[in-house]
Amino acid sequence: MVDLNSIKEKVTQMAKSSLSMWKLTYDAFIEHDVELITKALEDEARLNALEEDINKNIIDLGRTAYSTEEKMRILVYADIAADFELIGDYCKDILERIQIKIEERLLFDEVAVEEYKELYNKTKVALEEVVFVLEKDNPALVQEVLRNEEHIDSMVDKYRNHHNQRLIAGLCTPMSCNMYLNMLDFTAAVYYHIKKIAKSLLKIK
């Protein structure tokens, strides 16, 4: 039987799949491993299937006589599921760039790799904290996530500028520069949706 608890469990599964996909995406980038890309895309397919299942469950629940507060919770979980699905989409965008990077044998400057690693890690920590909150089923814990919020946009602007300077200095090609800047922007988008999920969780009482 479909109920709010089963939807919460599926959202938690989406959180775990998002984290798995995020880690595999980075590993594929670092290791130049196309098999890891395939594994990451399996997580993305799982995210899409779970969101579709959740949406069907929510339609069914919408026909049930729930209180206004309970319906609000259901809608919040629907929003969270949509955000996790979008995180999967952005990971897929990054994976497409990594695929090109591998096929074209493009190289990034060591400093560029270290800067991306920092951005990746900050995003991973935020996603791990959201997964923890959902596993514990305690939305109040998400306040810690928001207290630790990083100024990702400022970091991305700084790293974009650094990489453009490397392009001007001839340390990278225009194609690899474009790939790298895309990865920065997509990572910032992933972080944005993690933050959005954290704020949505605060609406659940």
Describe what this molecule looks like in 3D:
This protein has about 200 residues and is mainly α. The protein is built from seven helices and no strands. The chain has helices spanning about 5-30, 35-60, 70-105, 110-135, 140-145, 150-170, 175-200. Helix 2 (about 35-60) packs antiparallel against helix 3. The longest helix has about 35 residues, at about 70-105.
Low-confidence stretches: none
Structural class: mainly alpha
CATH topology term: Methane Monooxygenase Hydroxylase, Chain G, domain 1
Largest sheet: none
The beta-strand count equals 0
Q: What's the average pLDDT?
A: 89
Rg calc: 19 Å
Strand content: under 5%
CATH class: Mainly Alpha
- Enumerate how many helices there are, as a single number: 7
In whole angstroms, how far apart are the ends?
23 Å
The share of residues in helices is: over 70%
What name goes with the CATH superfamily?
Phosphate transport system protein phou homolog 2, domain 2
In total, the number of domains comes to: 1
Quick one: overall form?
Answer: elongated
What is the H-and-E element order?
HHHHHHH
CATH architecture: Up-down Bundle
Describe the protein's topology.
Layout: H1 4-31, H2 34-62, H3 68-103, H4 110-136, H5 142-147, H6 152-168, H7 174-201
Helix pairs in contact: 1-2, 1-3, 1-4, 2-3, 3-7, 4-6, 4-7, 6-7
Keywords:
mainly alpha; 205 residues; Methane Monooxygenase Hydroxylase, Chain G, domain 1; single chain; elongated
Describe the structure concisely for a colleague:
The chain is 83% helix and 0% strand.
